[in-house]
Specification:
The chain has eight helices and 18 strands. The protein is α/β, with parallel strands linked by helices and 411 residues long. It folds into two domains: 190 residues, Rossmann fold; 119 residues, Coagulation Factor XIII, Chain A, domain 1 (Distorted Sandwich). A hairpin with a 2-residue loop joins strand 1 and strand 2.
Length: 411
Amino acid sequence: MPDITIELNNVAKRYWLRRGWYVTSLRDEMERLGARLFRRQVAPREEFWALRDITFSLKRGEVLGLVGPNGAGKSTLLKILSRVTVPTSGSFVVHGRLGALIEIGAGFHPDLTGRENIALNGVILGMSRREIRSKFDRIVAFAELERFIDTPIKHYSSGMQMRLGFAVAAHTDPDVLLIDEILAVGDASFQAKCANKIAELKEQDKTIILCSHDLTNITDHCKSVLWVEGGRVRMLGETGAVLDAYLEHVTATMNAEAEHAQQQEPAAFEGLATIHEVTVLNGAEQPQTRFDRGDRIIIDITYSAAQPLPGAVFGVSVQDIQGYALGGVVTDPDSVKISAPVDRGVLRLTLDPVLFNRGAYTLNINITDPTLKRTYDLKRRASRFAVEGSWATDRETSGHVHYPHRWESLR
């Protein structure tokens, strides 16, 4: 079919593990051969399948989101499509010119200047010398690297390398563009520029695969989503349906991991104050872990204290699915006090309304004395919840937090 730009049929990728490393080099294989010749013991190798039976196709102009936990096989899939590595079995076809931004510095030589690497990377991506010369000034301006273009890129920061890599990939006039989570390291201004370029490519009916842990980005740009788990396709379909299922799975997984961690974690504090349980409830005070934006979330913290702790405060902080801090709140020490020993106390925090956008979130709970710089107890990932539903995403918001707002035209 002429409209098909990407097609994979039962693609699989196997690695051999030995001593904790992937065995991919000629030197490793020579060592193994020498060991056999001299009848020395050869370290056993373990089979590891990064991908198994990946089958899907994309038509011209489609934008596919790629989601899954770390180690699920997402980057391996993108490396196969960009021909950085080859599949162990199965077949795939990519029609047209491909641009890829899947790794900082991929295709760059550290000792060459930015100018020289544009030429090198452009050739790798299929550009002619004439095309590179005609687009050179636009690439440099997009990357905002005019002052450093004749500096070896080993002196570039990771952000500068990322800007240069995206600028080259986006200006190859690709029919297919692969974008990994790498875009998250750019500053706000450059992320906006990248978003504009992606929008421009979408208008030109380019095929795009966007891999991101930021589900708002996926919702904004993608009509369909591929969820990869353990190297296999877990679900492929419409964005909303796949992300809802993915969030439910992530929340359940985090629940199990948190319970296991709490069972295994040794007591690290003195026992002067202890957090025993953290429960997430809905507005009707019933246990619940899935909410829509605008709902009420109640967080009950069950604790005990062996003695009065007059300077202690309780803190609740929120993290996203990757563990990045999104802020939090603490109690006022003048209104919430531990003024006597407590056998069983319950402190309630109400978030009303919830202002988070679609995503999975975890809670860290602590009891500290900010004056003494002393932590009495800390429970990481003590509880978790997911935000989804019809209100959780709209075209006017981005990032993790929704800011209540109103636009007015004064003229």
